[in-house]
Amino acid sequence: MIEKFEEWYRNRHEYQTDWKQRNPDKKMVGFFCTYTPEEIFYAFDILPVRVLGSHEIQDVTEPHIFAMFCPYCRDVLAQGLKGKYEYLDGITIGASCIHLRQAYFSWDIHRNPGWSHYLPMPGHVQSPRAIPFLKGEYELLIKKLEEWTGKTITDADLKRGISIMNDARRAMKKIYELRKQDAPPITGVESMYMTCAQFFTDAREFTPVAERVYDELQTRKLDRPVGKRLMLVGSENDDLEFIHMVETLAEREPVGATIVMEEHCTTTRYFWDEVDTSIEDPLEAIAERYVLRTPCPSKDWPRRSRLDRILQFGKDWNVDGAIVVQQKFCDPHEADIPFVRKHLESNGIPTYFLEFDVTTAVGPFAIRVEAFLETLEAEEDLF
Amino acid sequence: MAEETKQEFWRWAETNWVNPDMNWKDAEFITVGIDVGSVSSQAVVMCDGEIYCYGNRRTGSDSPTSALNALSFALENSDLTQEMVNYCIGTGYGRVNVPMADRSVTEIACHARGANFFYGPEVRTVLDVGGQDIKAIRCDGKGKVTNFLMNDKCAAGTGRGMEVFADLLGVPIGEVGDRSFEIDGEPRPVSSTCVVYAKSEATGMLRKGWKTNEVLAAYCAAMADRIYSLLDRVGVEPGFAITGGMAKNRGVVDRLMIKIGIEKMTTKWDTQLAGAAGAALFGVALCKKGKGRKVAG
Amino acid sequence: MAKYPTEPLKCWSKAKELREKFYREFSEAHEKGGLRWMGSAWAHDAIPQGLGRDVKCITGEPYGASCAFDRPLSAEFLAATENYGFARDLCSYMRNYWGSILVNKYALGGEFPKADFAFSQHICCSHAKWYQNACELEGGDVPLFAIDVGAGPYPPFAPKLYEHRVKYVQEQLLDAIDWLEKVTNRTYDDELFLECVWNDVRSTHTWAKICMLNRAVPAPLDEKSIYSLYVFGTLQKSHPEFADFYEELYDEVTDRVQRGIAACPTEQARVMSDTQPPWGFLRIYRYLESWGAVSIGSLYTFGLEGMWLYDDERDEFEPRPMPAEKPKTREEGCMLLADWHLSKPEYQHFYHPEYKTRMMAAMAKHWGVNGIILHYNRGCEGLSVGIAENRLGLLKRGFKVMTYEGNMGDEREFDEKATETRIDIFLEALGLQKPE
Amino acid sequence: MITAGVDCGAKNSKTVILQDGEIIAKASVLTGFDQKASVKASLAKALEAAGLTRDQLDRIGGTGSGQKDIEDADVKVNDIKAIAAGAHYFFPNCRTVADVGAEEGRAAKIDEKGGVVDFAINEKCAAGAGAFIEAMGRALETPLEEMGSLALSSDNSIPMNAQCTIFAESEVVGLIHAKTQKKDISKAIHDAMASRIVSMVRRIGVNPDIVMIGGVGYNPGFVEALRRELGVERIYIPDIPEFGSAVGAAVVAANNGKS
Ligand SMILES: Nc1ncnc2c1ncn2[C@@H]1O[C@H](COP(=O)(O)OP(=O)(O)O)[C@@H](O)[C@H]1O
Ligand SMILES: Nc1ncnc2c1ncn2[C@@H]1O[C@H](COP(=O)(O)OP(=O)(O)O)[C@@H](O)[C@H]1O
Ligand code: SF4
Ligand code: SF4
Ligand code: SF4
User: What was the pLDDT predicted at B185?
Assistant: First the structure.
């Protein structure tokens, strides 16, 4: 069953076109950042799908985004310009870093599918003023969606949207719990396939699969050395090639590793926090969720609240070290990384820093990761 | 009008050596370290942790052959044969393609260990400037890596660049260092150490009537700057040693040392051997732990 | 080939004095028993000023620019931040600023004066992080309050000014005042605050009026001089002397226009630029003038600290009228500040490049511009976000556009020779002749 | 009207002689350390070929990265203007021209009269020009002239990650180690470089009638990669691509400075 995730991931466009055929009367909206309130779209029975890059070198974004913006936003825009997402009915972004916004803007200008919405998302999430503001923005969004779909929604619809998302989140968290085991029954790559698949599959189809997988994993044994337990921290990163390289090092080299946890917007930062269903007003509850979730660094001020969560993850998943990942030019994370590293190091978790581009130069990265793993070696065989 | 240069000035001397006052037959453990780098390949043979012989050659276009060549070059003047080796470790850029290796270790670990052997346990910071990598390594008293940085994406400031450059100016690479000081008044460093642009920049300077040595000086200085900025990021702790081929280029090294402002340690060994030596030493440790091969005799 | 009469600005030396006084006052604030704060040039600086007249500030952007003028010093600052572990592509003002703290050197001499608190605004990914990190680097005990102004576009780019958006900003401003009282143990002076709010409105309105005068041919001001004048808005909009100075300046420029005084006597073609220039290389503007091309300004110099309204129907771009009456209460003051600054032209492109393209097109039209020069500024993601789309949009509207890559505060990323080549080709295409 | 166009490039100095719009002679010599000398030499060679003397020329147009060393030039023609005029000379319908030389790539969008509308130059890293393929050729131990045809014989596409010439070099070595076929590697090399040039061309916009000049035009592997990446029917290339700029300079000289 677990292969399902990879299958979905590899055939995401097929899945999405197929979904459209199965749901001829339903709309599909592409979103660019994890700050998009998917609950609201589900309430309208619209399928929110996150637009991801393809990790292929491309030459179509040059006229639209100049050199110093992150490769991820470039890669994302390339998908649109190359017409890979023509089946979308609309696009939206919950304001995140300004890099990703550019992908959205250019897409909106050159490939507008007929509906688009820019959702301001408060940056001052530590302020009590953030939730009321965001609620106001949600009301505008809902109005716009009502005009578009000709539907009006009720609190019941919103609550349905909330439970759809919460279920998916809970299912993934349960699987993440299993990665705490000394010999995790699921590799980092597999887990990344899962989280990435969730971005674009219909949560109502995803969650049952995730639950089945959870049951299977109870008894699953992987015949591969665990090696060092690593955590990934930092920028958006769905670079499976890299994770695969790390987790297969042991096949070629005397050292090996398994990614057991991540803190980035492709995984935990995106799904970890649930909507508090005890809050009466569902819209308020959703707003609260997005304001209080682990923030993107560009919203994490005046207090740098991410640090404790990262460290806690590191401890709970008992990691030997952390690879701090930064997408080239990713300003939000660049402003945090020195402090993230300090915090982890001073708490006994060694870190190594890597700068990512659209494609990973696997060779040069392998040597770095290996050398990092060698520094983690406890056994002094070599000395 | 300059014709394309026929002679290959970048060619640095390939060397091998056998320790005359050592008999491998007395050794308990014979270990080999083979460092297949992007530019050069070395094989170092050790008897119980002392260098018995070595070979240092240019890397060919495939690692297994380069590794073999280096080893046979090392054994050329000795009756020691591969069969007698108890442990062999491959390192360097082609480390996974060393046929006779029992295991591999990264060149980062090996250079740190090798530096510890070449320069003594006081070494804390190792700079390895090779064919296309610049590695700044921090290590402890045992030669164990504690932290390191490498250049990425851009090869500016590496040995290969210096080769291209020496070739362009028609100066044998071994002379680059000394000649870069046969000038009056240190020139401004070239603005780019990009291997490719450095070429046109140098051409430009020659066109402006600069003397060859001045151009060399300007380029060496730029390389030193570039290397320094990487070193600066790991931080230089005294006990500073340089390994790799660039260590032999005093045009870059001496200029670098001025910037760092501390003494660099010295060794009688060929700095290009550090990686292979480190590898061989790891082999010794493994043998002592009974992990070595049993060999006839 | 001088074609127009020219003469230096009378108030030039006064401008210089005011600037120096400002930086001096910041470093000397403590000796005078006052307080020091740091924050963005875009901050609502009237807010902390309500704490008292002895409260002095330093704003990061113009400070970063002053560092950039001194290239060796800047290089030292940038190296320090890189060694600390910060990436090289972060905002170069910010890196110069952090570098000053790390190296403990004040670009204007002496040690770097530590701030008592930080007060900023936040719209690009870096603003609040800038001071969050600065506080940390200054020892971790400097408190920070930042106002998020990312509340969405201002009409006409939004159907209307939604109440929850202004309130979001206004309420943060009110919170800030309470916070200030707490961290400084001072009682807040609302009278003084309201006066500062009015100065802010006055200076930002007057600056826009001054820029309007540059529609005249020949242009009374060239952008290289404009840089030294618009800076007051970035230093402290709410400063009474600065507001007064702009009114003086307005009169002088009006007089220049009436007498046909040109900034560049050889003006044959007019260009406008965009985003901050590479500060260490302002001579490229002189290079333009050697061709007879004068840069009359930019949405950046006009619209960062000048307040304007863009009129969709008439495709016109005009100074935002001052409110009919002054605010009377703290709430009114905060409401005015919030609303006034949400209309800042330099905020709108954060919500869509198209908005900026429209304002730039209107500017190019009404200021009689022949060509547009866009600086792809690697030093500032905030103002260069969407700039490539601005280019496409302007080309589509039939304007001649040139781009060059550079960095406002990191000379390593600006290639002067290559840029001059680009300028040559562009100006030739505009029909100008290369000067002999 | 007889004019000469001299293009002093990073690698070669080229001269063409134009008589009433007809190319009557051309010459190319290596640009050595002494730029002035190589320029003179190529001019002399061309004059000789044309059986003319210097004073029979009405005007000389100079262009290229070494323009300042063309002492005989009456008209200085900037590089972009030269490639535009050159492309227009060979293909009057041309609206976009790409010039790929040894160390620089340039592209210009031009109007029906051959005037420059917009342009782009590939800056910074050198990995986007002829020198790149030359370096890769060395790594592959394949003569430059064969690189292109070798690439054409492959229909696999392997992505090249490294942007840097030097790292690309070791990536190539890596591919060799991985026993990848030379032809596939060669294709990867050309594709990688083409995609860099294409990004640059896209910056100014691609028109169907796209012309390529510069010595790399001799490289069929690159031209094909370029065509594929740009998604156009064909790319128009003069039979003497490396003389494109020189011709442009001669044309501009003939029009006395106007393109
Ligand atoms: N005798 C020498 N004098 C000066 N430079 C040398 C000498 N020998 C080697 N080098 C430099 O060292 C470089 C190779 O360094 P090396 O450490 O062998 O590279 P790698 O280990 O990556 O193959 C050459 O590119 C050259 O620049
Ligand atoms: N026969 C050929 N096959 C492939 N490439 C060639 C051939 N001839 C020249 N080139 C390429 O053209 C480049 C030189 O082009 P050219 O326009 O003369 O450069 P420049 O104008 O900068 O001197 C060389 O770098 C080489 O890559
Ligand atoms: S990687 Fe960084 S810059 Fe890129 S979209 Fe994510 S947060 Fe933004
Ligand atoms: S990047 Fe630009 S907008 Fe952002 S803080 Fe720096 S200067 Fe300001
Ligand atoms: S600048 Fe030169 S050395 Fe650096 S990446 Fe480019 S080609 Fe390589």
Answer: 85
